[in-house]
Design a protein that fits this description.
Layout (H helix, E strand, L loop, with lengths): L4 E8 L5 E8 L5 E4 L3 H5 L19 E4 L4 E4 L2 E2 H7 L2 H10 L5 H12 L6 H9 L6 H12 L12 H27 L12 H10 L10 H14 L6 H10 L5 H12 L7 H14 L4 H9 L20 H16 L5 H14 L2 H5 L6 H11 L7 H22 L28
Helix pairs in contact: 2-9, 3-18, 4-7, 6-7, 6-11, 7-8, 7-18, 8-9, 9-14, 9-18, 10-11, 10-18, 11-18, 12-15, 12-17, 14-17
The protein binds carboxymethyl coenzyme *A (CMC).
Length: 434
């Protein structure tokens, strides 16, 4: 962790009580007010729905500047990483703080390759799910189940065990994801091919069949690799916070990551990528009436929201969406895909960005607005989109879990509440209740 400077904030409460709070300035971004002693000294707690103004930790992994529309992993711009790096290199960077040297990368990739198989007993678990099971449900269940095979690696304080678990998860998640998909379409599970790179192997397990040769398309493989890089980390987002929260109880890495996956599944978070394409499909089938959907999104009595718009942090633009917008056109063109949904997406963006409702609230397209379109062009089925997000976010989840465990300031996450219920009252026996 880089050094940060400390200061002081003095406030006066309504009753005249003077409150002195320490402040902490990081290397970039917001200043933190340390309220750690507020309750003990003044019987006060902070109230912050959705933790929109609360920092739960100090972190050196990624920096998000919502006003400037910037995202950096360990100081590197995501634009540079998406263009020049590879997903395994970025995973290494997030977990270790530095980009790997050629020999470090070789060692890391070879360690990951040596763990791509699942224990054969796990295959029976996939069989037990209903055919229509959502792959996100299978993914988190299988990740939690994986912990049962590696109990000797559960100790969060043993750095070697933790490293071994980060490698196993990185290696096995694509296999789990591909098995979940194969299960849903009734095809045989494809074992990993360790002669292929990370994303090509995943494509092979997803789309290959034992009856015919399958060579992953390098254009698809490279595009997927860049998409995974763009999803790899994003500060204290909902799923990462879930991973940290679960892990703060010293639950093992597999269990903590499974918790993050369940948080990611929701449509306001990672589930948005499939919700966007479902929404664009609805608009298409409804006669391409974009204006009607914009009107619905603005109607306070209608729960409908424009999926893929808005972000808690970005109030200018989402840099990931900006990269993906250019990328979407290129990928579709190179793959010769002519998708009518892309036109609807462009129209929707144009209408929304010129509408006062969206301008006032600073609602811009986010990463999920374009990623779904690209996942679709790459041949992935809708229900796998959030699984792809999970594969991409995995290194970030693990890096945060590791950082949290190593931070001497970490305590079990246990927020307070403002109690707003009944005050003490006498118990009434059942027969006396009317
Ligand atoms: N469509 C219509 N109105 C919206 C939208 C939207 N997509 N997003 C926010 N608003 C309105 C909201 O109704 C509120 O209006 P008002 O001030 O009149 O009550 C205002 O904008 C602020 O919204 P908020 O819900 O308080 O903002 P938040 O920071 O709590 O939520 C969000 C952020 C991403 C959950 C939200 O913008 C949203 O639901 N977007 C659609 C789902 C989506 O695309 N999620 C992916 C997020 S990016 C990647 C990720 O995290 O996975």
């Amino acid at each position: 962790m880089f050094t940060t400077s400390e200061g002081e904030l003095n406030i006066t409460a309504e009753d005249g009580t003077k409150i002195k709070l320490a402040t902490l300035t990081g290397t970039e971004g917001d200043v933190g007010i340390d309220v750690g002693k507020l309750r003990a000294e003044h019987h006060m707690v902070t109230l912050d729905y959705g933790f929109a103004n609360t920092a739960g930790c100090q972190s050196a992994i990624s920096f998000v500047d919502g006003d400037a529309g910037e995202l950096r992993y360990r100081g590197y711009n995501i634009e540079d990483l998406a263009e020049h790096s590879t997903f395994p290199q970025v995973a290494y960077l997030l977990l270790n703080g530095e980009l790997p040297t050629p020999s470090e990368l070789e060692e890391y990739e070879s360690a990951v390759r040596s763990h791509t198989l699942l224990n054969e007993e796990m295959k029976r678990m996939f069989d037990a799910f209903p055919r229509k099971a959502h792959p996100m449900g299978i993914l988190s269940a299988a990740t939690a189940a994986m912990s049962t095979f590696y109990e000797q690696y559960h100790n969060p304080r043993d750095a070697d065990s933790v490293r071994e678990s980060t490698i196993r998860l990185m290696a096995k998640l694509p296999t789990v994801a591909a098995f979940a998909y194969k299960k849903s379409i009734g095809q045989p599970y494809m074992y990993p091919r360790n002669d292929l790179d990370y994303t090509s192997n995943f494509l092979y397990m997803m789309f290959g069949l034992p009856v015919a040769p399958y060579e992953p398309d390098p254009v698809v493989s490279r595009a997927l690799d860049a998409l995974l890089i763009l999803h790899a980390d994003h500060g204290q987002n909902c799923s990462t916070s879930a991973v940290r929260l679960v892990g703060s109880s010293e639950a093992n890495l597999f269990a903590s990551v499974a918790g993050g996956m369940n948080a990611l599944w929701g449509p306001l978070h990672g589930g948005a990528n499939s919700a966007v394409v479902a929404m664009l499909n609805d608009i298409h089938e409804d006669g391409n009436d974009v204006a009607k959907y914009v009107k619905m999104a603005k109607d306070k009595d209608d729960p409908f929201r424009l999926m893929g718009f808005g972000h808690r942090v970005y109030k200018n633009f989402d840099p990931r969406a900006k990269i993906l917008k250019g990328f979407a056109g290129n990928v579709l063109e190179r793959l010769g895909v002519d998708d009518p949904l892309l036109d609807i997406a462009s129209k929707l963006e144009e209408v929304a960005l010129s509408d006062e409702y969206f301008i006032e609230r600073k609602l811009y397209p986010n990463i999920d607005f374009y990623s779904g379109m690209i996942f679709r062009a790459l041949g992935f089925p809708l229900r796998m989109f959030t699984v792809l997000f999970a594969i991409g976010r995995l290194p970030g989840w693990m890096a945060h879990w590791q950082e949290m465990i190593e931070d001497p300031n970490t305590r079990i996450s246990r927020p307070r509440q403002i109690y707003a219920g009944e005050t003490s009252r006498d118990y009434v026996e059942l027969e006396k209740r009317v």
